[in-house]
Amino acid sequence: MNKFSFAQMTSNSDGKTSGSGAMGVYICFFGIIGFLFGCIDKALLSKTADIMMYSTGVITIGAGLLGYRKSKDKLVIPTEEAAAGGDGEAEKKD
Predict the structure, then answer these.
(1) How far, CA to CA in Å, does 93 sit from each of 41, 57, 67?
(2) Which residues of the chain have pLDDT under 70?
(3) pTM
């Protein structure tokens, strides 16, 4: 990956769109919007930080979904024997 791309952020290693990755991005985005509105609310209006606390939880859920996609997307590197069709044990010749 040479540069940042939302397409790579929401796709699996095989190129298909990941549901958990896409929802993680959306949830993080709306959590950040909520946090910014909470900052404005804290500074100007009600002086409570409740919405900032809740939106931090929403951002954590979104980040967890992105992390789940990455953990599910681990690359399995086949060994030479598996690529050749072997079962990992040397064949016995009688």
Answers:
(1) 78, 62, 48
(2) 1, 72-94
(3) 0.65
